[in-house]
Amino acid sequence: MRSSSMRRGLAPLMLAGAALMAPLAVGAQEAEAPAAAAPATADAPPPAAQSAFQVSEGLEAMRYRHLWIAYGVIWLFVFGFVWRNWKLERATSRELDALEARIGDLEGGAGVKVDG
Amino acid sequence: MKPFPIATALSAIGLFAAHWLAFDFVPMERTMGAVQRIFYFHVPSAWLCYLGFLMCFVGSVGYLWTRRSRWDLFALASAEVGLIFGFIVLITGPLWARPAWGAWWRWEPRLVSMALMVLIFCAYWVLRSYGGSGEGVKRFAAILGVFGAPNIVFVHLAVRKWRGTHPDQVVSRSNSDMRIALYSVLAILLVVFVLLVVQRYRIHKNAFRVRALRRRLSRMGAM
Questions:
Q1: Is pLDDT at B151 greater than 80 in this prediction?
Q2: Do the chains contact at A24 and B220, CB–CB below 8 Å?
Q3: DSSP secondary-structure letter at A58?
Q4: Which secondary-structure segment (H or E) carries A82?
Q5: High-pLDDT (> 70) share of chain B, %
């Protein structure tokens, strides 16, 4: 009983740990990415007409990827926390109501009050 | 009319507005490009993390002074929400640093002191979650809260005092639209922060009452 509740309780900590590892997972893919894009000069010749679409592998693509991952992590944390709170609040309220009803029955219908 | 659901609905709308501000309203930053938009949630999250730990400090001092449970529950709820924002800072920071600095992490004063402060409050949270609900645990956690929170000063002054890679005073020198967006997102996240603290406080208060009722039932011989 205790160990299963401990496992449940450890879940958010493990989730946080996994999220902290996310940059490492992204980093493995980006180990070879260039540190900065080459600057364009004013007197450089205009680029030739593009004959095919090409995949962007540079810094700009990394910037967008990291932006989406960062906002994804923010939402994971905020919504995960809200969802967990909502579940916990419902469970504790239900348990509280059940215990109050039980004590009320045992005491012959007298109201139950516990100060916080 | 119940204020909590209304505030929750308003904060949900506010979060959509915060994304519009961060992604559409503000102009693109010239040097860092799109990744700079992490700033609009990274910085307010850091400030709210400070606020959570500061509130934990106040609650811990209140508990050590009065020994009333409501101070202890307030400290616990504040530390938990502060920790969530602290994790957001520690995860979004490296994701921003890699394209901006070319490295995920640098062992420089602001980053290290922030990570240490979050670890102190992780210890606080683990103690409260697995240490039981005894008086000694509450007292020890309150002492941890009292000694952990002053690190906010070190984290905040680390950039000015020891000069690292992490920028300082960026906000006041930024474009006015960027400042408007930052402070608006901060206000919206502050509402979310308050709602989360209230919700966590209610959960802990209910759990406290459940424990008290169980003790009462066991004294009555019904458990």
A1: yes
A2: no
A3: S
A4: helix A59-106
A5: 98
Question: CB pairs below 8 Å between A and B: how many?
Answer: 121
Q: How far is B206 from chain A (nearest CA, A)?
A: 6
For the question of whether the overall pTM of this predicted structure is more than 0.90, the answer is no
Is B35 in contact with B219 (CB distance < 8 Å)? no
Q: Does B192 touch chain A (CB under 8 A)?
A: yes
Give the CA distances from residue B168 to residues A99, B155, B174, in Å, rounded to whole numbers and listed in that order. 54, 12, 12
Long-range contacts of B125-129 (CB under 8 A, 24+ apart): B125/B79, B125/B80, B125/B83, B126/A13, B128/B76, B128/B79, B129/A9
Q: Tell me the nearest-neighbour CA distance from A23 into chain B, angstroms.
A: 6
In this predicted model, which residue has the larger pLDDT, B221 or B195? B195
